[in-house]
Amino acid sequence: MELALIVLLYLLVGAIAGVCAGLFGVGGGLIVVPALAYVFNYLDITSASIMQLAVGTSLAVIIVTSISSVLAHHKHGAVQWTLFLKMAPFIVVGSLLGAYVAARVPSDSLKLIFGVVEMLIALQMYFEFRPEASRVLPGTVGLGTVSSSIGFISAVVGIGGGTMMVPFLTWCNVNIHKAVATSAACGMPIAIAGSLGFVLLVPTAADLPQGSIGFVYWPALLGIAFASMLAAPAGARLAHRLSTHKLRRIFALFLFFIGLLMLLS
User: Fold this and answer.
1) Per DSSP, which regions of the chain are E strands?
2) End-to-end CA distance of the chain, in Å?
3) 61, 118, 162, 232: which is deepest, by most CB within 10 A?
């Protein structure tokens, strides 16, 4: 396939992921992982670890794209850094463990896991499930268990964890704006530890294409991250101009359909 078309595919994936992230406040991994799985197949990358390449690359993209989000939230004083520092070590442990496990399961099994998680997130978005603020934050053991679990699941499927972290924090009576901001900050250790895991904890027998370091495929990372960073502000501007309630439901149906395709393909 011509180089120009390959570059265009990566830029298109990044632009779509960036607009959706800015418009709906969801991480790009929900778009990037399935898109890369199909693009890698389309490019005839014969690796038996296509899903691992998609997930590892998605986490690396999230490192780049989350920086501007965290800086913006910090500028408004919304990030609860004390809470973040309590959660971050557990998130790192969970993310590394998730990357270790995901790097070793069959690619088809990882595709099924992603499909199920994507469909559950889509249902959460469609029905706008958000638990009532009915408790306070748990102690170290409880907070560590939740943080490491979110890190583990996020690293396995290549997402930033916000769809799990925000409902948990709001349930624990954290203001929604602070919950979103703190969740964005928590996405950084998820992405950093997870992507490092997909680079350093790769099985020695893994079949890797040229251009990858571990399970991170650099040509895709550079193209997607570049386009996503440019497109995310446009999505954020659209969010202030459009009524996103119906659009969010349509997007949720789209995610559900993608998850179903991942299960059936």
Assistant:
1) 212-213, 216-217
2) 23
3) 61
